[in-house]
Design goal:
By secondary structure, this protein is an alpha/beta fold. It contains 13 helices and 28 strands. Among the domains are: about 220 residues, FAD/NAD(P)-binding domain; about 160 residues, Glutaredoxin (3-Layer(aba) Sandwich), CATH 3.40.30. The radius of gyration is 25 Å and the shape is globular.
Length: about 550
């Protein structure tokens, strides 16, 4: 037990990798272990939603993610073989807006995506430890003691290791044993008959410009989704008329494809990571017990319909990481960690409801709210994904640590975990982007965005001063900078030469007023918006007292109790 990480992360999928990267950015020592001896190579969940892309940008990884991703391609519905019956769009984007930097989904092979995250982790001096399995653990007042089984590189021998850490996070998947060891219920339902077959294949004789489908998901449907690196495609097959036993090799997958497509002029090869998903839709009754937390599939499993699961898992990690970092750095009370459950459980419950409704469409079991009873559902209708699934509306308006201090803006009646965009901006909402802005202290950089000033390492206090405000009004903000909690951005209207600068601040010029409009700042009043490290508005207030109240709550007092 020579090395004592502050956080032991069990599981090296997207959940664990994002958590590890976020904590490392905060200077928090971690270990991340994975019982598999090698990284998973499957395409798995391919959709990265715009909200997740924003958070990956805060981590400095989004450009590398785009390099291995494809845009949301149009869907080609085929008759026999190459014959195209129609071309349709399967997703609704957010549309152009200065407040939304990434309006569309990016699609990537999960194995390539995880490789990007691992590289960023390695740049910060850590790495995933493969072939290391958590066997048992126990908690005490000051930490967690974890017992590990470590496989040799050759795989023919194992050794035992004991690790002591302050906190442990289980990202070990739906079949992982951390949740079971904590004695938590896994509430939900299993539908053994509702299956989806997936695999990685290379494809010859088919372009990579469309997401291709044959047959119908009402009976038997087969889809090939192009991914990078070419000629990689992901197989997706579902429907009640598929065979009881799915193939496990390239020849069998080719035969299944030909039986549905009626074609022998498209060749599949190099099948790998063949798997069958069965409908198992559940969530834990709580996401934490003491010093042990659950995130991702270990806390909730779901239908892949709608591309919500992996994105929700990564957002679990973002929500938990900044809270753990503040507590470990001594800047917040451990009581802050209770808000992980309070904020994430309602979001996950709504995600399960949405993805289950989409699952029902794909398996021709539409709820009354989706389509009229008995209506035959085409593939493109079953696969259509509305704007709500971009996750830009996810919010925590009900959270005990968000502070809405504007008069008349604290009504909680409109709380909807996915519904930020249905009403006026409030504390607890996603923080909008804004562009064009100019950094008054570094004009040579040209136009920047507001999101580019955010960081996973600290809060950002945005001050919107009026024309009559003086530097003295803003100076009390510096105490939050001094203790390491925040940085300050002072956003001015486009009035050159009036930029106010205080310690730890950036003076930004709102060239076209998009920041003021996006944050509902009108007239000449002074406004403050506190942005959390996960890009959520923690507080919205017109006075210094509101900011002090927000940070006092984080530091462990009434609002967290």
């Amino acid at each position: 037990m020579e090395y004592k990480p502050a956080v032991l992360i069990v599981g090296a999928g997207p959940t664990g990798l994002v958590l590890a990267l976020s904590l490392l950015k905060n200077g928090v020592p971690i270990r991340i272990i994975e019982k598999s001896s090698v990284p998973h190579g499957g395409a798995r969940g391919t959709a990265i939603q715009p909200r997740t892309l924003e958070l990956l940008a805060f981590l400095g990884a989004v450009n590398d993610v785009f390099a291995i991703s494809t845009p949301p391609l149009l869907m080609a519905t085929h008759g026999t073989g190459q014959e195209v019956l129609k071309i349709t769009r399967w997703e609704q984007d957010a549309g152009p807006s200065p407040h939304i930097p990434y309006p569309r989904v990016a699609s990537s092979c999960q194995a390539e995506f995880e490789k990007v995250l691992r590289k960023h982790i390695e740049k910060l001096g850590a790495k995933v430890e493969y072939g290391v399995e958590l066997t048992t653990f126990e908690q005490h007042a000051h930490g967690v003691v974890a017992h590990l089984r470590v496989s040799s590189k050759s795989g023919d021998a194992t050794s035992e290791e004991t690790v002591e850490c302050a906190y442990m996070v289980g990202g070990d998947g739906a079949k992982g044993h951390i949740r079971k060891s904590l004695g938590l219920s896994f509430l939900g339902e299993t539908k053994e008959a509702e299956r989806m077959f997936t695999a990685n294949v290379d494809v010859d004789g088919l372009d990579g410009e469309y997401w291709h489908t044959w047959g119908t998901f009402n009976t038997a449907g087969f889809a090939l989704k192009p991914l990078k690196p070419a000629p990689l495609f992901q197989v997706q097959a579902l429907g009640p008329d598929l065979p009881d036993t799915f193939p496990t090799d390239t020849e069998g997958i080719q035969r299944l494809f030909e039986s549905i497509s009626g074609s022998q002029d498209i060749a599949l090869s190099n099948a790998a990571w063949v798997s069958t998903w069965k409908a198992n839709i559940r969530m834990a009754n709580t996401f934490s017990v003491g010093r042990v937390f659950l995130a991702g599939d270990s806390a909730h499993c779901h239908s892949p319909a709608g591309g919500q699961g992996a994105n929700t898992a990564m957002q679990d990690a973002f929500n938990l990481a900044w809270k753990l970092a503040l507590v470990i750095r001594g800047l917040a009370s451990p009581a802050l960690l209770r808000t992980y459950d309070a904020e994430r459980v309602p979001v996950v419950a709504e995600m399960l409801s949405l993805s289950t409704e989409l699952h029902s469409l794909a398996f021709n079991r539409p709820r009354a709210s989706a389509v009229d009873a008995g209506e035959e559902i085409s593939n493109d209708k079953a696969m259509f994904r509305p704007r709500k699934l971009l996750q830009l509306g996810i919010n925590y308006r009900w959270s005990p640590i968000v502070l809405e201090a504007r008069a008349g803006e604290d009504d909680a009646s409109a709380n909807d975990p996915y519904g930020q965009e249905t009403s006026k901006l409030r504390a607890g909402d996603r923080a909008p982007d804004a562009t064009p802005l100019i950094d008054a202290d570094n004009t040579s950089t040209g136009v920047i965005t507001l999101h580019s000033t955010f960081s996973v390492e600290h809060h950002t206090i945005i001050a919107f001063p009026s024309a009559a405000d003086t530097l003295a009004i803003l100076e009390p903000l510096t105490k939050h900078v001094d203790v390491g909690l925040a940085r300050i951005s002072v956003v001015h209207r486009n009035v050159p030469g009036r930029e106010m600068r205080i310690k730890g601040s950036r003076a930004l010029v709102d060239v076209e007023g998009t920041a003021h409009a996006g944050y509902d700042v009108h007239g000449d009043g002074l406004s403050f918006v506190v942005i959390r490290p996960d890009g959520i508005i923690g507080a919205y207030t017109h006075g210094m007292a509101g900011i002090d109240r927000y940070f006092a709550a984080l530091q462990g007092f009434a609002a967290c109790q």
